[in-house]
Amino acid sequence: MAEEPGSTAPDEGQNAGGLYGGGVVQLLTVDVARNPQPVFKALIEGGPVQRMTGLAGPAVVATGRAAIDEIFKYPDVYSSAGHFGSLGNVRPLIPIEVDPPEQRKYRKLINPIFAPQAVERWREPVTRLVHELIDAFGDAEEIDYAKQFSTPLPSQIFLTLLGLPIEDLPTFLRLKDGIVRPSVLLGLPPNHPDVKAHQQAIAQEIYAYYNKILDERELERKDDLLSHLLDAEIDGEKLTRDELLDICFLFLTAGLDTISASLETFMAYLAEHPERRAEVVADPDNIDNVVEELLRWESPVMLVSRRATRDTELQGCPVHKGEQVYVFIGAANVDSNDLADADEVRFDRTVNRHIAFGGGVHRCLGSHLARLELRIILREWHSRIPHYRIKPGVKLDISPGVRSVDSFPMLLGKGE
Ligand code: HEM
């Protein structure tokens, strides 16, 4: 079905019309990613589900909380499977590109490794790594928060979880960036053939990198993530080598940029709101609530995507088989139909049912680890560096989707 951007077919439900008539591409810009909440509010006012031009044809955009809850509830209708390779991977990433019932099997097997009690074993190394990076600032009054802290830290933590030496950091970052942002690295447009070729070559390197470590761990187990995965079993069955690789490949994207994006968006907010930052400094024991509220407000992962497996209707809007469904979880998090004071950032909320980690069967596998990391990092940072601001004149280039930055010039100082 062809659809002109901005057209409103009567049988097709509410279209975004004038405001975002250019379609989804207009929602995935640096300007929107820098300040998404007003755009999300305007979108919700246009209707909780709208038809728009997607990145590859007609699509559906869900912004309201009730609609999004419905999408998450029915993975058989709103599928995560069937399309893969966007990161150069040659098989579906496990479990994010797999539908139930297989997906549930994998989750049952991996969940215990990332359960709240299990991730506690990583508290000490995370704390140590935070302090090492801050120590390395020395007496500097200006740093690049992204380059010196929020980018290397999640990768260093992950290397530690994998039982790998910190010296592998440059390789690890090169591999991650090679699949996540190949066009930025090469300075070429995303659809340039060299970009895909580069990404696919890096993907092969990633499989080889993990294969080598898995060979080593097969011979000798350690107390690390890969050894736990090798030993995990369900109904007497263990993961095959390909399955292990497809899980590890996903960790490289799901577990790193998401933490960087959270740190960058949280710190940008706190740098620009000194009165809120003062609350964080004054009450370190409230850090859990601070993290939850900033996850809700900032939604570091703006959206996720599904594909309709059949014709259906979502909150009165027709959805056609095969269409892409964009799930703007960031919008649902500021939906005032769901939360009365959704526009306010409040660190004293007693109830906060945000969906920054998604929902339903694919809800983030790493949420307990993410929470552990973010709580420790914010607490330790503010105990040592209570005053900081974005370098005057700098406008952060926040990328759409996963809202991370390549550069974040920050001034550290007294009383700012
Ligand atoms: C604050 C940081 C994080 C945020 C905001 C975040 C967000 C999300 C979201 C929104 C999803 C749902 C994707 C979908 O429905 O299609 C997801 C899934 C996932 N996340 Fe996270 N994530 C974070 C950290 C992590 C970490 C540290 C790990 C490392 C283990 C991780 C591993 C995963 C995995 C494996 C999935 C797929 C789960 C499945 O499909 O069953 N995430 N995450």
Q: SSE layout and pairings?
A:
Elements: H1 30-34, H2 36-45, E1 49-54, E2 57-62, H3 65-73, E3 78-79, H4 102-110, H5 116-119, H6 123-135, E4 142-144, H7 145-150, H8 152-162, H9 169-180, H10 182-186, H11 193-219, H12 225-231, E5 233-234, E6 237-238, H13 241-254, H14 257-272, H15 274-282, H16 287-298, E7 304-308, E8 312-314, E9 317-319, E10 324-327, H17 329-332, H18 367-384, E11 388-390, E12 409-412
Parallel strand pairs: 2-10
Antiparallel strand pairs: 1-2, 3-7, 4-12, 5-6, 7-10, 8-9, 11-12
Protoporphyrin IX containing FE (HEM) binds at residues 80, 95-96, 103, 107, 114, 250-251, 254-255, 258-259, 262, 300-301, 304, 356-358, 362, 364-366, 369-370.
Describe this structure in words.
This protein is globular. By secondary structure, the protein is of the alpha+beta class. The strands form four sheets. Strands 1-2-10-7-3 form a five-stranded mixed β-sheet. It has a three-stranded antiparallel β-sheet with strand order 4-12-11. The chain has a two-stranded antiparallel sheet with strand order 5-6. Helix content is 46%, strand content 10%. The chain has one domain (10-412): Cytochrome p450 (Orthogonal Bundle). Helix 6 packs parallel to helix 18, helix 11 packs across helix 13 (241-254) and helix 14 (257-272) packs across helix 16 (287-298). Bound molecules: protoporphyrin IX containing FE. Protoporphyrin IX containing FE is lined by residues 80, 95-96, 103, 107, 114, 250-251, 254-255, 258-259, 262, 300-301, 304, 356-358, 362, 364-366, 369-370.
